[in-house]
Amino acid sequence: MKTKDIMLSAIQPTSYPHLGNYLGAVKNWVKLQDQYRSYCFIVDLHAITVPQTPENLSLNTLNAAAFNLAAGLNPKEVTLFIQSHVKEHAELAWILNCFTYFGELGRMTQFKDKSSKSGENIGAGLFTYPILMASDILLYDTKIVPVGEDQRQHVELTRNIATRFNHRFEKEIFIIPEPRIQGSGARIMDLQDPTSKMSKSAQNDKGVVFMNDSAKEMEKKIKGAVTDSGSEIVYTPDKPGIKNLIDIQVAITQKSIQEIVDHYQGKMYGHLKVDTAKLVMEEAMPIQEKAGQLLKDKDTLIDILHDGAERARNHARETLDRVYSTIGFVPGKGR
């Protein structure tokens, strides 16, 4: 019997997950969880590349875990854990630092974008976090990494690092991962600025639908979405506001773009907004309710995360031992 390929996915605990996180990532992970051996984790180590308060980091980490479970991840099938609970992530990251070139990191588009907004006091972690991401991926012999187009560059860097390491020691120590780029829904845009991706760090939260917003708040934000000149509902780059609302409907209903466009022939933008708001509320409210129930029983939630961390650690330790042996480190006691 063929062993399932390993898929790895992650979510940042920098605030409560939003509609873009759900439609662009988590909904797809749920759909794929039976097809692959899946590792899903909350990347709290990545989160501290920008300032966090201890209270918010802890709260958002548990919120993210509850949200993933409420959205449909099955902890019996998916290894769900918190990144900092598996110390091998940080250990392997240091090793990979030594196999990554400075120029490669300097070319990372996200670093250029974020550093341009950070002034002179830029933490080194913001520069090197793609190496930690490579460690995340390579620790678990990952074959499939579902990402949006904006993360493709980081997976390509991971592939380069893994190939370089394998060639250096003339052994296949690391599996070379493959990015799985998502289609519609992978890049949900800001409702107030549909040329920018929906983001937790948006200056105006009216453009971001958080999955713990009330139904009334969701409806208000979607009905207040920026639309485009003209009145025809078509899916074209010069109508980014309309295109975004159609993408949201595609991701929720799994209908084709053409089916949705055809449905709105002769209708106004208002019809599209009202229907999109209804679909989002119908999708989000049951998840919100279940996540709330999980957070009321934090002991059980934490037990699930500890169990996932133990399973992840067993796999990660095997990988790290293989790496250490290959490099030539003298085995330590208990390792």
**Overall geometry:** globular
Strand content: 5-15%
- Compute the average pLDDT: 92
| CATH fold-level name of the largest domain | Rossmann fold
Low-pLDDT ranges: none
Rg calculated over all Cα atoms? 21 Å
Per CATH, the class of the largest domain reads: Alpha Beta
Write out the strand line-up for the largest beta sheet, numbering strands in chain order: 1-2-3
CATH architecture of the largest domain: 3-Layer(aba) Sandwich
Number of strand elements: 5
Q: Which class best fits the helix and strand makeup?
A: mainly alpha
Major sheet description: 3 strands, parallel
Q: Name the quaternary structure.
A: single chain
Helix-residue proportion: 40-55%
Structural domain tally: 2
Describe this structure in words.
- This protein has 335 residues and is mainly alpha-helical.
- The chain has helices spanning 19-32, 44-47, 54-71, 88-97, 102-106, 109-116, 124-138, 152-169, 215-223, 240-253, 257-263, 269-296, 298-327, and strands spanning 6-11, 37-42, 78-82, 144-147, 178-181.
- The longest helix is centred in the last third of the chain and has 30 residues, at 298-327.
- The two termini are 32 Å apart.
Q: Gist?
A:
The chain has 335 residues and is mainly alpha-helical. It contains 13 helices and 5 strands.
Write the layout of secondary structure elements.
Layout lengths: L5 E6 L7 H14 L4 E6 L1 H4 L6 H18 L6 E5 L5 H10 L4 H5 L2 H8 L7 H15 L5 E4 L4 H18 L8 E4 L33 H9 L16 H14 L3 H7 L5 H28 L1 H30 L8
Parallel strand pairs: 1-2, 2-3, 4-5
Helix pairs in contact: 3-12, 4-7, 4-13, 7-8, 9-12, 10-12
